[in-house]
UniProtKB/TrEMBL annotation:
It comes from Methylomonas aurea. Homodimer. This is Carboxy-S-adenosyl-L-methionine synthase. Keywords: S-adenosyl-L-methionine, Transferase. It is an enzyme of class 2 (transferase). S-adenosyl-L-methionine binds at residues 40, 65-67, 117-118, 132, 199.
Length: 243
């Protein structure tokens, strides 16, 4: 059955409120993220493959900002390690409720879904940590301490998969990549009005940073190696490795 179509910004809203991961968003989220994030399906699929490669026996794989559990499901389907839990965390009660239903419907066992702020939960004994388009919603001032906590919680040989919308230092690149993303959304059926109202809603809510900033901060908290493994216009996914 196709997902309900995202038409949340299809009509003029007058004043556009700040974007929230509420019940209205939850209802259309699978359609919204597929049509808004170039390469989303490929990234989810690769997260599964990476988890299959990096998950260790007797460890934990975290999906932080799990939304409806797409990355958790992909990981669970690929993990062959023994006694390896997947812990999916999101602070939106509406997301968590639907995530639990999705997991039950998929008959995939072994995912614990937690409703919490990812800055507050302990991260321990992790072989895999996924932040799939979540860090961009964490206040800038909290990002370094949060990533340092993830680094400490990862086991030696562990992996952080970090997917983010990117900003660019060069104004020509910033303009071009933004334009290409908007063309991508138009090709997915979004109107100019939908694109512009959604952009207003995300202003000051989703704060993108340049790859160089991500890389520098990941290195400064301890990751020995940081690379982009996927990029499609201004959306990228990085791999950070702990020795
Ligand atoms: C763009 S969605 C992530 C998509 C999801 N990872 C996926 O692969 O489908 C961002 C999610 O992060 C969650 N989020 C944002 N800030 C959070 C925080 N401080 N703690 C927990 N979850 C958070 C939101 O509720 C939302 O569900």
């Amino acid at each position: 059955m196709p997902f309900p179509k995202d038409s949340l910004y299809a009509n003029p809203l007058g004043e556009v409120g700040a974007f929230k991961f509420d019940e209205a968003v939850v209802k259309v989220f699978p359609d919204m993220i597929q049509r808004s994030v170039p390469g989303y399906a490929a990234i989810i699929s690769a997260i599964g493959l990476l988890a299959g490669r990096f998950a260790r026996d007797d460890s934990v794989c975290f999906d932080l900002g799990c939304s409806l559990g797409a990355a958790s499901l992909a990981m669970r389907r690929q993990i062959v390690a023994n006694n390896c839990r997947v812990v999916a965390v999101d602070c939106s009660e509406a997301m968590v409720e639907q995530c639990r239903k999705n997991l039950a419907d998929s008959a995939v066992a072994g995912v614990d879904v937690v409703c919490a702020d990812i800055r507050d939960i302990p991260i321990e004994n992790a072989s895999v940590v996924v932040l799939n388009f979540t860090l961009q919603f964490i206040p800038l001032a909290d990002r370094e301490a949060f990533l340092a906590k993830l680094y400490r919680g990862l086991l030696p040989g562990g992996i952080l998969i970090l997917s983010e919308k990117l900003a660019f230092d060069d104004p020509r690149q910033q303009e071009l990549q933004t334009e290409m993303h908007h063309l991508f959304k138009k090709a997915q059926g979004y109107s100019e009005l939908e694109i512009s109202q959604k952009r207003s809603a995300l202003e000051n809510v989703l704060i993108p940073e340049a790859f160089a900033v991500h890389r520098q901060r990941l290195k400064s908290v301890g990751f020995s190696s940081v690379e982009v493994w996927f990029q499609y216009f201004n959306f990228a996914s990085m791999i950070a490795l702990k020795c």
